[in-house]
Amino acid sequence: MTADSPDTARRNIRILTLSQAVGGAAPPIIISLGGIVGKLLSPDPAFATMPVSLYNLGLAVGTLPAAWVMRRVGRRQGYIFGALIGIGGGLVAATGIAAATFLIFCLGTVLVGFYGSYLQSFRFAATDSVSGDMRAVAISRVMIGGLFAAIIGPQVVIWTSNAIPGLPYVASFIGLSCLALLTLLLVSRLEIPRPDRAASVDLSGGRPLGEIARSPRFILAAGTGVVSYALMAFIMTATPLAMVACGHTVGEATLGIQWHVLAMFGPSFFTGKLIARFGKETVAATGLILIAGCAVIALSGLGLTHFWIALILLGVGWNFGFIGATAMITDCHTPEERGKVQGLNDFLVFGSVASASFLAGALVNTENGWSLMNWLVFPAILVVLVPLVFGRVFGSSHA
């Protein structure tokens, strides 16, 4: 169901972009502090990264329930509910730190992961208000919010880590809750029509999900998103560890990640226009080629510039690949099928991201692990790049 007017559509996109900037600051907070707090609270140092892993698990597991909720009650009410989960998750995590209880802290990060499963669908909500080539532009504009989220999250950590004497990091997770509250206030102003009563009750509307999932169009679109995002997480997770192991400083590794994040979201200012000009499949294929280029640079040397250039290529490649794949998904469903198809897509994407993060941590610490990881990039890309290119050339990607 689309919005009533272009003005409403533009207003919704602005709200979603702001919501992405504010709400999307939660993951950087979790990623920055999850391992540090986990090391302080966990009974075994081996469990130090468990809070971050559980966040990713909550994100993956929460995608299908989030899609169900929004299909039943609408985007606006669903996002309000998700923001409430985020408020609670931040407060539970803060309580776990204050009480020095590892399990409570982990419960908080899982809840923030559930919150994240709602945030991830902002890009799809932007397409509810527009049609045609404007869908890619709308997705790209909302993704710009991620650029600001990548700045806001770390700044919250820097300014609040020691704000409460004797209770380090508690204020940071209270800050996460405050950002979720601000997100709630923003999304409550969305004007996206609620689904019809019949559609909200009949959650099996449209084709069966299994039939859609077996269609070549969905397989290619979802596969492109999975490979783009999973490979990005796979290499990004391991790069700081590999850099330090090669003699580079933690500061140099951190700077490299900062450039990577800027490369991830900076192109969103024009990715939508590129898709409108050249097509979503072409832009997605270009993103995959750039990710392959990242692996080529990484395998060519272990100098600082090799790591930094590889991270920048990885970020731009993810942007083109993921936004292109998201635009492809919008061609895979009818309006009544939208919620379940988008939910399945996000479940596949973020489930693969969680798996890739675990695998990266295991491989990078093995002998020649960094080289092996980068060699694995090529076959993964070829699996989707070949049908993507052939589909574009021979016009079968829409079959």
Draw up the topology in text.
Layout: H1 6-23, H2 26-41, H3 50-73, H4 75-98, H5 102-119, H6 122-127, H7 134-160, H8 170-187, H9 197-201, H10 209-213, H11 216-245, H12 250-265, H13 268-278, H14 280-300, H15 304-329, H16 338-363, H17 369-394
Helix pairs in contact: 1-7, 1-8, 2-3, 2-5, 2-7, 3-4, 3-5, 3-16, 4-5, 4-8, 7-8, 7-12, 7-13, 7-15, 11-12, 11-14, 11-15, 11-16, 11-17, 12-15, 13-14, 13-15, 14-15, 14-17
Question: Could you characterize what this model shows?
Answer:
This protein is mostly helical. It has 2 domains: 1-203, Up-down Bundle (Growth Hormone, Chain: A); 205-393, MFS general substrate transporter like domains (Growth Hormone, Chain: A). It is built from 17 helices and no strands. It has helices at residues 6-23, 26-41, 50-73, 75-98, 102-119, 122-127, 134-160, 170-187, 197-201, 209-213, 216-245, 250-265, 268-278, 280-300, 304-329, 338-363, 369-394. Helix 11 runs parallel beside helix 14 (280-300) and helix 11 (216-245) packs parallel to helix 16. The longest helix has 30 residues, at 216-245. It is globular and about 50 Å long. The relative contact order is 0.14. Mean pLDDT is 85; it is low at 197-203.
